[in-house]
Amino acid sequence: MLWRAVRSMDVIMHSSSFLLPKLYQPVNKPVKNYALVVLNQHLPRFMPRLWDHANLKICADGGANHIFDEMYQITNDEDKKSTRNKYVPEIIEGDMDSIRPEVKLFYSSQGSKISDKSHNQETTDLHKCISRIHHCTPDDEKPNLCVLVTGALGGRFDHEAANINVLYLFSDMRIVLLSDDCLIRLLPRTHRHELYIESSVEGPHCGLFPVGAPSTSTTTTGLKWNLSESKMRFGSMISTSNIVQSEKVTVESDADLLWTISLRNLT
Amino acid sequence: MAPTAPTQRPTMRHSSAFLLPSTAPSSPAPGPDDAAVALVVLNQPLPRFAPLLWSRAAVRVCADGGANRVFDGMPALLPGQDPDEVRASYKPDVIKGDMDSVRPEVKEHYSNLGTRIVDESHDQDTTDLHKCIAFIAENYSATNKSNLSILVLGALGGRFDHEMGNINVLHLFPSINIVLLSDDCLIFLLSKMHTHEIHVEKSIEGPHCGLIPIGMPSTSTTTTGLRWNLDNTSMSFGGLISTSNIVEEDKVTVTSDSDLMWTTSLRK
């Protein structure tokens, strides 16, 4: 019998329980601390659910326009004014070239902190927001913090790539990019990953992508087409249109991977 | 070891002239000297310039549910025309894929008009886009491939695993000029085997652009014609990638030791 030295590696556990209504949180699991960053694209239809979970809400520049214009339509509340008063971000951050003046004035009057970073043209709005959260969160609290981001995918491809790069630049933070159709997370190669699948809200379609650099060895469990010390590379094999078949998916790789899973039609 | 000196690599020229508005009174057929354009429509809402590209294309292929998008979406983009006439004249040459998305009545409508239906439901190993690109490459080999551009609608946005799979198709066919288009931008692959000259049509594209090393870091990329040019610069995820750059000149050149995705924004 061949004995193989088993490399002991820390495990990161991932869960999408933020997509469940707040009342239905899994018991006996640590309650995560959520922050929400809203970028400048149309809101996903489940935005109120994310807002309810988040302790800190930051609008990146024109993201504030979308909250101002669209929350009312999504919640279908009768009173536009009281909806606007209810969904007020703690911070509006960015270079302020997209936010409409009346929107900025409204949130400022409601108590939002306006953090004008127009002097800094070196980084994207998402980078600024994540950097702020990173700076303000003690290291020992980072593992328990999950930053939810809307509006990072679709639209201009260079923006999407820059937003994905923020996941790599802040790989010690748990950041989830969300759209109506899917979510993506970075799975750093430094850890083994356990993904707890909330099948009422996510799946079944999923994928793993070596966006930064190829993988010479990736192993998974819980998928329809599992990888077994498999190579993955753009220009060759990458895992797309895979299917989640278990409540728990595990991933271990020698390369940083992007994980994606489709979202069910959430209202 | 020094990489191949840039001057030794053949130059590949890229142009987005296919996006320029037509000045002819009726839909022009591509002439013998024109670059041949093929159009692939995937299963997402059509961008606003879909009718223009349709008129430019020598061959039009719908990937499965892309046929639904043409059937439903073309009349909406041409509100001044009778929907039935639009559905008759904007007829794909081929509908290809595993046929699990195309509506039966849509398939029948186009089949009755002469569209070739190619059922690939037995092949679950490749994506719909992969099947369409392979099909065009095989069936239109009479065309000088260096002159062939395959334009793809509906490859970006939506499910991220689909988008990644579509980008991987560009890597799997590096010698074919394939352009992915959305309402907001276009992207194509710059293979490391070439030096690239990108002719930017400033009336329709830009000013924003980017160079993104998908799949492999680049240790050396050099550009001209951008506001923030790269000079033997390293790029990688986790490090620097060139985004929110600006096209300054009509001609941009790129040389790299790694395959890069080039993107420009499209003007509204």
TrEMBL record, chain A:
EC number from the UniProt entry: 2.7.6.2
**Which pathway or pathways does this protein act in?**
Cofactor biosynthesis; thiamine diphosphate biosynthesis; thiamine diphosphate from thiamine: step 1/1
One GO CC term, this protein:
cytosol
- What are the protein's UniProt keywords? ATP-binding, Cytoplasm, Kinase, Nucleotide-binding, Transferase
Is the Nucleotide-binding keyword given for this protein?
yes
Q: State one molecular function term (GO).
A: thiamine diphosphokinase activity
Pfam families from the entry? TPK_B1_binding, TPK_catalytic
What Gene3D superfamilies has UniProt attached to this entry?
Answer: Thiamin pyrophosphokinase, catalytic domain, Thiamin pyrophosphokinase, thiamin-binding domain
Can you state which reaction this protein catalyses?
Answer: thiamine + ATP = thiamine diphosphate + AMP + H(+)
The protein's job, in short, is: Catalyzes the phosphorylation of thiamine to thiamine pyrophosphate (TPP). TPP is an active cofactor for enzymes involved in glycolysis and energy production. Plant leaves require high levels of TPP for photosynthesis and carbohydrate metabolism.
Name it: Thiamine pyrophosphokinase
Q: Which organism is it from?
A: Zea mays
From TrEMBL, chain B:
Q: Where in the cell is it found?
A: Cytoplasm, Cytosol
Biological source species: Zea mays (Maize)
Q: List every stretch annotated Disordered.
A: 1-31
Annotated Thiamin pyrophosphokinase thiamin-binding domain ranges read 194-260
Gene Ontology molecular-function annotations: ATP binding; kinase activity; thiamine binding; thiamine diphosphokinase activity
At the top level, the lineage of the source is Eukaryota
Give the protein family. Answer: Belongs to the thiamine pyrophosphokinase family.
Q: What is this protein called?
A: Thiamine pyrophosphokinase
Compositional bias (Low complexity): 15-31
